[in-house]
Amino acid sequence: MFETVFILERRYGRPKDQIRAALLPLLELPGVAIAGKRGLRRVFELYADLHLPFADAHHAVYMEHLKLTKIATFDKDFDRIPGITRIAL
Question: How far is CA 78 from the centre of its chain?
């Protein structure tokens, strides 16, 4: 999923909302088996709605899953994610 998002965004210049609209229906196909499929829906939500990098959105959803609320990072993108407090390095 990461590679597909990366290629669509960087190589083809597609906006995040279009990438989400194109890839979310693929997750709904019954024959598609992807680990963390349910969490990917939330990843796409953060990615498109908060304009986060896909990897940051993925980390945020994993943090939600683990019930973590703080992250130590230089990455200011995490400041935009509700429920997560960034500890600046």
Answer: 12
Average pLDDT over residues 7-16: 97
Residue ranges of alpha helices (H) inside the chain are 2-6, 16-28, 37-49, 54-66
- Please say whether the beta carbons of 34 and 1 come within 8 A: yes
CB-side neighbour CA atoms (13 Å) of 63: 19
How many Å apart are CA 70 and CA 59, to the nearest integer? 12
Instruction: Name the residue among 49, 14, 43, 8 with its Cα closest to residue 27.
Output: 43
pLDDT given for residue 37 in this prediction: 85
* Higher per-residue confidence, 38 vs 82: 82
